[in-house]
Amino acid sequence: KEINVINSKTKELVELDKRHFIHPTSAPKAAAEDGPSIIFSEGNGIYVNNMDGESYIDGMSMLWNVNIGHGQKELAEAANEQMTKIAYSSAFKGFSNEPAIKLAEKLASLAPGDLNAVFFTSGGSESNDTAFKLSRFYWKLKGKAEKKKIIGMQSGYHGVTQAAQSATGIPATHEFAGSSVEGFYHATPHLTNCELGDKNDPNYENSIRALIEKEGADTVAAVIIEPVQGAGGVNMPPEGYLEAVRKLCDEFNILFIADEVICGFGRTGKMFGIENWNVQPDFMSIAKGITSGYSQLGGVMLSDEIRDTIVNYDGVMAHGFTYSGHPTACAVALKNIEIIERDGLVENTKEMEKEMQKGLAYLEEKHDIVRNCRTLGLLAAFEVYNPETGEHLDPSLQAAATIVDECFDRKLILRHIGDFRVAIAPPLVISKQEIEKMIQIIDESITAFKNTL
Ligand code: PLP
C-alpha cells in the first residue's frame, strides 16, 4: 500500500524512513523501496490518526497490546510524575524502587493461584527467555541439572530473542539467520487425547507426551504454551486440552509456562487467559497489556515453590536486565492496571465478546467464503474458504491479505495471518457501536475481495 502523501512533512518522513529505518518483522526490500504505508501521529480510544489527521480504527490494538486504548492521559501523567522524581534506578544487588515493589505486589494479588513473585523484563521475548533460564535454574537447585529441554507448540509464538525464537513453532522465525539454539522441541498443539495417554491416536507421535517419552522426562525442564495461540493464528484450545497438558506436566515433573503476553490483562475477558480454564501454571510470562503499550515492560511470574527454591540460593543469580523494574514503566503499569479495574475493562471485554460473536456470525452467514470464526473476549479471527471444495482459498489469491488491504482502504487496521486467516483484536474500551462499524467495514471489504475473483 502506498502512503497517501498529502503534506510535505509526511513525504519527507517517508524518504527518511526508507533510507534509515530498518523495520522489525517487515520485508526489507519493500520497506526500503516503498516506505511505510502509514505514519501514525496520535490516537484516541480505538482510533489512530496518520500525519494528515485521517482517522483509522485500530482493530488490532496495534500489536495486540494497546488494551486500554490510545490517548489515556493519566498514563502520561503517571510517567511524567515518576520520571520527574528520578530518571531511573537500578534493581541490582540491594537496590529497589517504590513503583516496582508496588507493581510486584499488585501483580501477585491479581495472578491466579500462588504466582506471587515477579521478575521484571522489558518485553515478551525477554520474559520467555527468563522463564526458560529460571526453569533450568530451578531444576539445577533441585539437583536435576539435566532437566534443560523446553517443549513448545507448533504455531506457538514466543518472541525473537534466540531462545524465545527457538521455542516459537513458526518455521519462518527459525529460517531467519539460522539462529535457533539447541534444546527446543515442538509438539502439535491441541492433541488432548494423546496428552491424556491415548497411544492409539494416529497423531500420538507428534504429541508433547511422545516427545517427553522420546527425550526422557529427566531431560525436560518445561513446556511453554499460549492459552490461546496469537500470532500463530488465534487458535483456541479445545475443551480439556490445557488441563491435559497440566496433568501431563505433573505426571513427568515438568514445569508449565503460560505465555500470557497477548492473553494477559483482560484480552480474553478474564484478567489472565489461563483463568478461562482450570489450570495453574508454574510460570506466567507477561508483557504487552501490562502497560497497554504506553511503556516497555514485561515480567515472569513465579509460583511460591519456584520462588522459595530460588530465594534459598546463596550465590548471585547472574540474570538481570538494566531495565528490570524500571520505575517509570512500573508506574505506568500500575496506572494502567488501575484503569483496567476502575473502568471495568475486563467486564466490558466479556460483554463485547458477544457483539464480536454476533458480528462474526453475520459475516459467516452472508459470505460463503467466511468460516471458522472464533473469539475469546476480544481475541478473534475468521478464515476464508473455497465454498465449493471446503478447502482454504488458494494461497495465490492472497485472500486474507487482500481483505486486510481493503479494510485499510476503508480506514480499519486488521492483520492477516498467513494466506487465509484474519485476526481482530481491538482495544478493550471498544463499544457495541464501534464493533458494528468494524464488522460493516469487514463486510464491505470481503465483498470487494469477492468482486476481484
Ligand atoms: N509471546 C507472545 C505470545 C507474543 O505474542 C509475543 C509478541 O507478539 C511475544 C511473546 C514477544 O513479545 P515482545 O515482542 O514484547 O518481545
Structure described in brief:
With 453 residues, the protein is an alpha/beta fold. The chain is 40% helix and 16% strand.
Overview of this structure, please?
This protein is α/β, with parallel strands linked by helices and 453 residues long. It has two domains: 38-68 and 344-451, Alpha-Beta Complex (Aspartate Aminotransferase, domain 1); 74-342, Type I PLP-dependent aspartate aminotransferase-like (Major domain) (Aspartate Aminotransferase, domain 2, 3-Layer(aba) Sandwich). The chain has helices at 8-20, 28-34, 61-64, 73-85, 98-110, 124-141, 162-167, 171-175, 192-195, 208-215, 241-252, 304-310, 327-342, 345-366, 399-409, 432-451, and strands at residues 40-44, 47-50, 55-58, 115-121, 149-153, 184-187, 220-225, 255-259, 283-286, 298-303, 370-376, 379-384, 412-413, 415-417, 421-424. The strands form three sheets. A seven-stranded mixed β-sheet has the order 4-10-9-8-7-5-6, with helices on both faces. Strands 1-2-3-13 form a four-stranded mixed β-sheet. Helix 14 (345-366) packs parallel to helix 16 (432-451). It is globular and about 65 Å long. The two termini are 20 Å apart. The structure holds pyridoxal-5'-phosphate. Pyridoxal-5'-phosphate is lined by residues 63, 123-125, 128, 157-159, 226, 230-231, 259, 261-262, 287. Pyridoxal-5'-phosphate binds next to helix 6. Its EC number is 2.6.1.-. Keywords: Aminotransferase, Pyridoxal phosphate, Transferase. This is Putrescine aminotransferase.
